[in-house]
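Same chain as my last thread, 332 residues:
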Amino acid sequence: MPPMSLEQLQLVDPVLSRLVRQDRPGGFIYDQICARMDVQFNAGIYPVWSREDFSRISDDDAEGAVQDRAETPEIDFGYSTRPYVLRNFRRQVTISPEERSQAHSALQFEASKVNGLRDYMSLIRERRLARKLRLVANGGALTSGAAVGIKWDQPTATIEANFQAARVAVNNATGQHVDTAIIPWKVAYAMALHPSIREILKYTVDGGKILQLGDRILPSQLHGVNIVIPQVQANFARKGAAAAFQQVWGDHVRFVKRGQDNAWGEVSTVYALRGNVRSTGTTAAGGEPEFALIDRWPTPDPPVDHVRMWEKVDEHVTAPDVAYELSSTLTP
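reply #2:
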């Protein structure tokens, strides 16, 4: 009888506690695109001053001069109101005392569950934003956009002309300038390989630096706008089915303007209107955060600890015309 192998002598396989694979999603851009606005009430209205009035001059009043002792002409500015409504978004995970005591330390069981909870909340809010920043005809809130005629992965694509058309359309309609282009990773990769874009980059960015950009693919600015490249993918398959990963932002390019957080009167395409979340639980950080909350509490039956993430928010498109969507930029 041959001697037993070393593997057969090991009754329990040792766990390498310093190595684990945990494929967490990444590449979120929500906080780069949404200006944050803290609000007190769950629903309300806000004023919108007339852009037309603020920019209006007439041919007979272009110089604005008046005669001595003449009555000073009066001008006026109109406004309207728009509503907002916050919604609650919350999910939880649970950990039983038995799970906590029996799980191997290498699993970092509780921390991994909380990481998964945080990633899930990030995924659903990223998807909400991506859906809102689409044309009304495509289920979103934007009022300007067009489908790309020649796809950007084709050698005859007119990417620069498409950029120009988007920027000029917004400026003609509103007098404003977009400052950010949201270009999904696969689209950015197609752009970086396109001869016309390579020709631009050859004269503006050192070739070695382009090769070092890694997942960014493109430099931080093109045509005077900031380039933001979402890379996040989500598995849209039901649990138990084969994985179906897709880019959350699809292959649609959006041009937007990003205002300052909590800035009065600032034009921003979209604000994250965030309400205060209050809870009777004890927070994971030991003190209650003002807004997005992670808290925990025990229940006697079933005997589990609950960990919950909770935010009250409305990704509110305040300037749907200071934006533009170039839809379906890649060949299906």
